[in-house]
């Protein structure tokens, strides 16, 4: 089939490495570098492959570019269907906020939840080897599905981004890498792989602004800071 993908329509998928909840990450930086593109971000803090795949399938991705940054394979995403699970989620003192209302229903992305019921899932029902194998199978199925939609597929992962960061000194100590690392990951890895062109002058200006800002995780003014920083006129 002839590939007629539309570089102007892009879907970015990922977990907390893509959500931009503590500071801008690679999808938000991509929006700043290419404000002319139609970019849809499908992400959630602590998301696993089941949530992300479910949300991807709910979108029309025909003739688009799909950038899927796969999270850790040991994630448990739960579609909440009854009060029993709603109460379980509320009992998690750390991850109770990780619920996302979608057209498919209410999801809980359990992330690294320490609840006994989640630990039982990981340690007894779906152990690491099976979890990894399941993700590998899902990757093949998603690749085939995206191809059927005549779309371009960029397959990457959090592990690849962490490996990329090993040779740099700008990752930081938070779970999510610092914005400068996200910028470099985007410009040096994702954009070339996706064939997305960049305006060198705009990229240089945004790079300088990101470098010169002292980033604080969960800064209460982070949205305003990024909105002002990412407005560049050329």
Quick structural summary:
The protein is an alpha/beta fold and 234 residues long.
Shape estimate: globular
Major beta sheet summary: 4 strands, parallel
> Could you give the order of strands across the largest sheet?
2-1-3-7
**The top level CATH class name:** Alpha Beta
Indicate the structural class: alpha/beta
Uncertain residue segments: none
CATH topology: Rossmann fold
N-to-C CA distance: 39 Å
CATH architecture: 3-Layer(aba) Sandwich
What descriptive keywords fit this protein?
about 230 residues, alpha/beta, Rossmann fold, 4-stranded parallel β-sheet, 3-stranded antiparallel β-sheet, 9 helices
Question: Describe it for me?
Answer:
The chain has 234 residues and is of the alpha/beta class. It is 43% helix and 16% strand. It has nine helices and seven strands. The strands form two sheets. Strands 2-1-3-7 form a four-stranded parallel β-sheet, sandwiched between helices. Helix 1 (26-33) links the parallel strand 1 and strand 2 (38-43). The mean pLDDT is 94.
Topology (SSEs and partners):
Elements (H helix, E strand, L loop, with lengths): L8 E6 L11 H8 L4 E6 L5 H9 L7 E6 L6 E4 L2 H8 L8 E4 L2 E5 L6 H10 L2 H21 L3 E6 H8 L13 H16 L5 H13 L9 H8 L5
Parallel strand pairs: 1-2, 1-3, 3-7
Antiparallel strand pairs: 4-6, 5-6
Helix pairs in contact: 1-7
